[in-house]
Amino acid sequence: MQNKANHEPTTAERRFIEDTARLLVPWGVPQTAARLYGFLLIHAKPVSLDAIAEGLEISKSSASVAARLLEKYTLAHRHGVRGSKRALYGVSDNYAAMLAEQNRLLDALAALMRSGARGVRSEGARDRLTEMADFYAAIRQGMEATLARLRAKE
């Protein structure tokens, strides 16, 4: 395992971590998870919860909760340590899985808007919901095209 000095962010790295958080928090990512994502992005290799806690100056339990959340978002990946219960965390490089998850959400949003459009009395609301469904479907198609390009590179 790398020593503590290798995980202590430089001033520029701290700025990057905080800038990452500033971008992700308005999208609903909790502050600690957003900072952890920035921290993982600046590390070439997976890091332990101890290193994360030290580097971000947070508790190990906060680091664990944030890491599990990033796993759920498919932004981080847990790496088991052979012969140990410990885990290391690194940034996920499975962009296809990230896009596939986003596509499922876009499909669900489009379906919800279409369902809502069928059930409302107001023509204005129906038009708005139909337009939103079309918007989510168009984004979904664009993401699918991007996903196809990524898969072709594999």
TrEMBL record:
Keywords: DNA-binding, Transcription, Transcription regulation. Gene3D superfamilies: Winged helix-like DNA-binding domain superfamily/Winged helix DNA-binding domain. GO terms for molecular function: DNA binding. InterPro entries: HTH-GbsR_regulator, WH-like_DNA-bd_sf, WH_DNA-bd_sf. The keyword Transcription applies. This is Transcriptional regulator. It comes from Ancylobacter novellus (strain ATCC 8093 / DSM 506 / JCM 20403 / CCM 1077 / IAM 12100 / NBRC 12443 / NCIMB 10456) (Starkeya novella).
